[in-house]
Amino acid sequence: ASRGVSSGNPSANNLPPLLFHQVHGDNIRVSRDGRIAKRAESFCKGVTFSARPVKVAEKICVKFLEVSNNWSGVLRFGFTSNDPSTLRYGLPKYACPDLTNKPGYWAKALTERLCERDTVLFYYVTSAGDVYFGVNGEEKGVFFSGVDTRGQLWAMIDVYGNSTAIEFLDSRQQLNNSRRHIESQDGDRLISQAMVNLSIHPPCLPQVIETPAVIETPPPPRFQHPTVKFNPLPFHRTRGRNVRLSNDRCVASRNAMEFCQGYVFTGRPLELGERVVIQVLDTEPIYLGAMALGLTSCDPATLTPQDLPDDPDLLLDRPEYWVVSKDGTNYPQNGDELAFCITRAGEVQMSKNGASPVTLMHVDQSLTLWAFLDVYGSTQKIRILGSTMPHQSSGSSPPRSIAPAPSSSAATTATERCCPVTVTTTTGVGGGTVLVVNLPPVVQPPVQVSHAPSQPVPALRGAMEDPSHSATLVSNYSNTYIEVSFIFVAAVRKYGRV
After folding, report:
1. pTM summary value
2. Which phi and psi (to 5°) does residue 443 adopt?
3. Which intervals of the chain are annotated as region Disordered (predicted)?
4. 46, 159 contact by CB (below 8 A)
5. 433: which residues sit within 8 A by CB, 6+ positions away?
6. Domains of the chain and CATH, by start
7. 358-399, pLDDT tens digit by residue?
8. What pLDDT digit, counting tens, does each position of 333-348 carry?
9. Rounded to 5 degrees, what are φ and ψ at 438?
């Protein structure tokens, strides 16, 4: 079983079933006579290999026995031309990028949505070095390319993240699920088929040209309150290599022929409580996966497109702070509006189309964080509507007024009847908005006039300590109606009587 296998023979029917090699990551436990590999702890150090070399076009079938939800990312799989026996004491934590950055290793991460318990993954390499993959008998297409097939190749699988236990299945028992013979002329056949399929597109082009306004003018928001005014928040100039930005950097569209590398970043770091709203403009259902959301302490201005991997999970290996949620957007459709924010408790919350927010993940809110989106898979085009700050500031902003504050001359004129009214806001019990109205004092006898300049006082403190005319408006907001109650507090300050 350990003999070298010629890469020129595509037949694999006479080969013994694949087993796991005795050389593997520190956290891997192999059982069932070499058929099952299980990661015992942590999320890494799960690199495994096939016990024998594989042939070109030999299907490698892997069943997911155990899947968790404690980590981020799943299986990485591919090939190596290095004999695993020579790696007994030199295996790193990760196949990607620790091994793939070295000669003779090729691997890529599977999307999390395809990693479910009892799912069967298969993959193989062609003589041209293209790696195809599929799930449950359905082939998905080329996964990656560039494998050197001139020598021996071993299967390499990193049991990473939420994929915790896998089993090698006999590929001969899986052949009737999805049968495909790879021959030298297959490349020409696939290209010809693609050219035939392209013939369906030209009839659609005149329709696109006839309605440029519909394409160029994004639809208005449907799920935002009419009175909401967004603060501009264009995307950063740094972006993935397959995404294009509009002139105002508010619309991001991915190349229709690609499914990844659609990274866009916010143009500045986010503030705690700042609510960012994204509108989905276009989707393409032929692709798997959807838009991912993440946050990072890395200034996008320091990045180049070459720094951004096809799989956003690989960003977690960078030295900066990165977190990402691939499934949080839950396959948005055309017109969907996604709002997200970082709370003061470090929760990253997201809501869709005005629904109640859900917590996707937790972050270190003490860091300066930029948000980023990967316009991936079925998500084709998005627009950033902008952002809104919390309805009530944290106290850093001065109270707002509907009239100028009293001048010193007005304060010293006891007989002045036309005095200004000031309005301040604060947060009331239960999260409502309290509107405090400071009314002008009544006419006082001359002996009560103070010639000292008046000093501004905070809204609540002034309302409690200075028994002047005041009124308080308490407003509690809900999703469907506004409940308003008035509390009017009045006191007459005259010779000490109230």
Report:
1. 0.42
2. -65, 130
3. 388-414
4. yes
5. 391, 392, 425, 427, 474, 475, 477
6. 28-194 (2.60.120.920), 214-388 (2.60.120.920), 408-489 (no CATH)
7. 998 888 899 999 999 999 888 999 999 999 988 644 444 444
8. 888 999 999 999 999 9
9. -95, 110
